[in-house]
């Protein structure tokens, strides 16, 4: 990694550890508060094209890039402070502190033990063939609610994509990476950055779209990106990017976007997603901003859901990890050597990286809560498992001459 902070550097009360990632806007490190035994993610403002680092770790702008560097720095600090001051919100990473040091700025966040969606979804699709509607629904409610919390505070994320949503070990999806975030109060982003496959048409520079006037970015832009993510989860494929769609329409008035509803219908109906979910995905993927819902509440209403987890909102149970938990529970039973091993292997599949978390929980104090939640969510399956287990225990006791 070119020019990252040295591991062991102390700043803002934490010690910098390994680098988690470095994108166009900054570098993310693991950081530890050794006194309190806490782990954090520390994001450093380091716009790759405009910044350079001196031998002592100090960051400065590259020659002739002072204006872009400074504008970006200012908005990084402002947005990090806004995020720090937000009330806790389900689905949104908690920012603990924002500070300036070494000529640049830092944002200290809670550390999320888990995997980003771009690693998780292909694994789930490979393992289960499709992602159950319940999981997509809960995922959508959580992320749309997290976006609503940003939008309510006049921020737009601008880089919603699978790599920027982590699935925490308990199954809760968490939106991260505010590197591209922008205040709706400022007229223009200091640095324009987006991920083409997920970006709404209004995020593309005017010179690329050949449009007469710029289309305004807003909550509807983040909802477009979320919808593309959901399209990918539901169909396993990505639609053509917004610019390709616009150019095709400019050439022959025909949008090459195939609605998720049609993609799945062509495959014989697919996993049978509800009309509400498919309407939300396809409407959210509308090319033009005016054809999309204007805010997250209107968006969720398309599938009969409401916002959760913020001030004055209800709380929802996170279900994104349902399938993973099912697999993990099977593994726990296999590994503990009970007579459930055949059921575990048959219904839940092979070993994977997530198993240890749930195993730890089951061994520890949270075991009953986990089992209770699992039974609530999977009554029929769990009941069959328990009956099989009981029958085997009775047989074993009988063989041992106890009964
Ligand atoms: N709060 C966090 N907790 C755990 N890991 C994180 C956290 N924030 C970021 N990461 C990890 O660091 C990677 C890069 O962080 P991100 O903020 O997305 O920056 P960028 O995409 O600009 O490199 C993420 O893909 C994720 O794996
Ligand atoms: Mg990222």
Q: What features would you highlight for this structure?
A:
403 residues; Phosphorylase Kinase, domain 1; Transferase(Phosphotransferase), domain 1; 42% helix; binds adenosine-5'-diphosphate; binds magnesium ion
Could you give a quick summary of the protein structure above?
This protein is α+β, with helices and mostly antiparallel strands and 403 residues long. The protein is built from 14 helices and 13 strands.
Strand order of the largest sheet: 1-2-3-4-8-7
Q: What CATH architecture label of the largest domain applies?
A: Orthogonal Bundle
Number of strands: 13
CATH fold naming of the largest domain? Transferase(Phosphotransferase), domain 1
Number of domain modules: 3
CATH class annotation of the largest domain: Mainly Alpha
What is the H/E order?
EEEEEEHEEEHHEEEEHHHHHHHHHHH
- Beta-strand portion reads 15-25%
Q: CATH homologous superfamily of the largest domain - what is it?
A: Transferase(Phosphotransferase) domain 1
Bound molecules: adenosine-5'-diphosphate, magnesium ion
Report the mean per-residue pLDDT as an integer: 81
Category by helix and strand content: alpha+beta
Helix count equals 14
Helix content: 40-55%
Distance between the amino and carboxyl termini:
66 Å
The largest sheet is:
6 strands, antiparallel
Model regions low in confidence, pLDDT < 50 over at least 5 residues = 326-374
Oligomerization state: single chain
Radius of gyration: 24 Å
Shape: globular
Protein architecture, described:
The chain is globular and about 85 Å long. The chain folds into three domains: 10-110, Phosphorylase Kinase, domain 1, CATH 3.30.200.20; 114-305, Transferase(Phosphotransferase), domain 1, CATH 1.10.510.10; 318-400, no CATH class. Residues 326-374 have low confidence and may be disordered. It is an alpha+beta fold. The chain is 42% helix and 15% strand. Bound molecules: adenosine-5'-diphosphate (ADP) and magnesium ion (MG). The site of magnesium ion (MG) has 4 residues, from loops.
